């Protein structure tokens, strides 16, 4: 591959003439935007310890009342992107949100898609599109694009959850905005009960409006039981993994990011191939060692890490007796839709 000409090789008066016309020569920047063989990601393998961040989040609870924050969140920012960019990867935003007993986070809707993975505490709930979704550890709650959502807390202890949004991508697209709204009217029924039996879909006969997202809450008790059933049914299966899916379509739960629950058997080592999307690992139960090239993270319960795409990843459950349960978020739906998805 030959060396390309540099900007400095061009006479200053020529560069000035280009600039005056808002013109830029491609060749000095061509290798930077099309590096050879594989991308050069800004996303750095990074881990966030829950033990380290929890006291800082609780301190935020004392320093900043909810009315002054609207959403009281510490962003898990990847230093490779710059801390001010609020990016875990090119397309993934991560934040830890705290809601204290009695607090209210008012209703709004926005274009980025969100999910919440509940980390600790009982008694809080989020109302999404009029459906009241109680929050318990390990539950996954969707807030797909455009749906109203608000958070309340009737319990007695702090509640913390991990927010995962496609905000960096939607913001980059100049398509990110929000609308504030009044408190929602809660309607009866919950998608997780009407869709509780895989393979049996509610079939409206007198159809008025079919919801694009019929299931908004994925209780951890059910995801955990499904993982254990899969592990027992297929004792030689390497990746005991489930995809959080939209039961109406069978496709991904949301349009841009993908969400998965993974069980590592006691003592298991799982080698994941290099794939183009970046990914996030969050330990729901147990512990997991995550190896991303030279980086090794020993994740305890509630710890989170992110990995760039195009990198093989190894997950290890060091416990000889207990399974480990890991929540995964990645950019697969986006890569597939764009036609750039690869496994190497
Ligand atoms: C948001 O609306 C929530 O509703 C949390 O809880 C985090 C981060 C960026 C933009 C919107 C929420 C968010 C957010």
TrEMBL record:
Cross-referenced Pfam families: Cupin_2
Coiled coil: none
Keyword Oxidoreductase appears in the UniProt entry: yes
Entry-linked SUPFAM superfamilies: RmlC-like cupins
Alphabetically ordered keywords of this record: Dioxygenase, Oxidoreductase
Metal-binding listed as a keyword: no
InterPro entries with a match to the protein in the record: Cupin_2 (IPR013096), GDO-like (IPR047183), RmlC-like_jellyroll (IPR014710), RmlC_Cupin_sf (IPR011051)
Domain Cupin type-2: residue ranges: 96-164
This protein's name: Cupin domain-containing protein
Organism name: Curvibacter cyanobacteriorum
């Amino acid at each position: 591959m030959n060396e390309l000409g540099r900007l400095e090789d061009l006479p200053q008066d020529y560069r000035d003439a280009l600039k005056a016309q808002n013109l830029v020569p491609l060749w000095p920047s061509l290798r930077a935007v099309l590096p050879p063989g594989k991308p050069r990601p800004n996303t750095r393998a990074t881990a966030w310890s829950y033990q380290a961040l929890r006291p800082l989040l609780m301190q935020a609870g004392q320093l900043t009342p909810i009315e002054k924050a609207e959403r009281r969140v510490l962003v898990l920012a990847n230093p490779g992107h710059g801390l001010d960019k609020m990016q875990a990867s090119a397309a993934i935003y991560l934040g830890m949100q705290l809601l204290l007993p009695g607090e209210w986070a008012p209703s709004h809707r926005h274009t980025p898609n969100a999910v919440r993975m509940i980390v600790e505490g009982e008694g809080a709930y989020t109302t999404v599109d009029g459906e009241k979704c109680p929050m318990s550890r390990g539950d996954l709650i969707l807030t797909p694009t455009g749906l109203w959502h608000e958070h309340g807390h009737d319990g007695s202890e702090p509640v913390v959850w991990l927010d995962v949004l496609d905000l960096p991508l939607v913001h980059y697209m100049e398509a990110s905005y929000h609308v504030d709204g009044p408190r929602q009217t809660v309607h009866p029924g919950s998608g997780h009960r009407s869709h509780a039996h895989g393979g049996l879909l509610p079939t409206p006969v007198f159809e008025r409006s079919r919801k694009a997202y019929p299931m908004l809450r994925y209780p951890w008790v059910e995801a955990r039981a499904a993982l254990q059933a899969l592990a027992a049914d297929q004792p030689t299966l390497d990746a005991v993994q489930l995809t959080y899916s939209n039961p109406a379509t069978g496709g991904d739960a949301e349009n841009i990011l993908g969400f998965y629950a993974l069980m590592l058997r006691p003592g298991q080592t799982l080698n994941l191939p290099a794939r183009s999307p970046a990914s996030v690992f969050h330990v729901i139960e147990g512990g997991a060692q995550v190896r991303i090239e030279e980086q090794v993270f020993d994740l305890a319960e509630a710890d989170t890490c992110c990995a760039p795409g195009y990198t093989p990843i190894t997950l290890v459950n060091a416990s000889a007796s207990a399974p480990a349960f890991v929540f995964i978020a990645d950019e697969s739906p986006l890569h597939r839709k764009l036609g750039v998805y690869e496994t190497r």
